[in-house]
Amino acid sequence: xSRVKIVTDSTCDLSHDLLELYDISVLPLMISMGxxxxxxxxxxxxxxxxxxxxxxxxxxxxAAPTIGDAVSFLxxxxxxxxxxxxxxxxxxxxxTCNVIRLAAQNLNYDKVYVxxxxxxxxxxxxxxxxxxxxxxxxxxxxxxxxxxxxIKDKVRASFVxxxxxxxxxxxxxxxxxxxxxxxxxxxxxxMVTEGKMVVGKKYRGNIKSALLKYVHDKEKQLLNADNDRxxxxxxxxxxxxxxxxxxxxxxxxxxxxxxxxxxxxVISSHCGPNTLGVLYISK
Length: 283
Known about the structure:
Layout: E1 4-9, H1 16-21, E2 25-27, E3 30-33, E4 36-39, H2 46-56, E5 61-63, H3 67-79, E6 83-88, H4 96-106, E7 112-116, H5 122-136, H6 141-151, E8 155-156, E9 158-160, H7 165-169, H8 175-183, E10 186-193, E11 196-204, H9 207-217, H10 219-222, E12 229-234, H11 239-252, E13 257-262, H12 265-271, E14 276-281
Parallel strand pairs: 1-2, 1-6, 6-7, 12-13
Antiparallel strand pairs: 3-4, 3-5, 8-14, 9-10, 10-11, 12-14
Helix pairs in contact: 3-4, 5-6, 9-11
């Protein structure tokens, strides 16, 4: 059994099967819908969020876990004397990494190593799976951390949003920008750069044509990607579109694994339905 335990937060958007396969534990972030606060991934599903948001015209507020929850989460691994590596959502977007540091201090345990992924969604998941695979093979904390420092800036995370309504409701873009984009049927690409979200290309037309154009635009970069795995991560897209993109990636004949995951509550709260991204590590 590995003496290194890999843990992460619920914004990693990894499926239950992957978490189980690689023995990864997840600390949920908090999502507040009005007066009600629930734990991401445990107490609500994205469909509830979309329904509430459309009924109220608001976007849920998302927050880092409580210190108490973080302490309870770490405690079993601390009691087992394990080396713990935590991969958290970008510190530019959330205080989650700092909550883990404070929890480790409360537990008076110096074998908790906090990694700011500088990313979100399966941009974190790519780092987590790589680390978990190394841990399974018996790699040390230092070996895993050194490997992550080499590849972290090579993670390519981007996605195309169907509507800017949710980002606008959450205060992440102006009402004028959202109205203009929705009126012109623009589907912007959101990219993660140095831990922050920035706007990339803007696609026009329906979501299917926008997503297929977005993926084709990535071909040159995909041909130069690490061939271990690529993620298709979505917030509730038509199965036909997902399959077409999966087939396109398969036809490139690069990746050993093409993994399809559904975005969790936090990511879905901000991007809304019909968002999709292709995420990978560049060589």
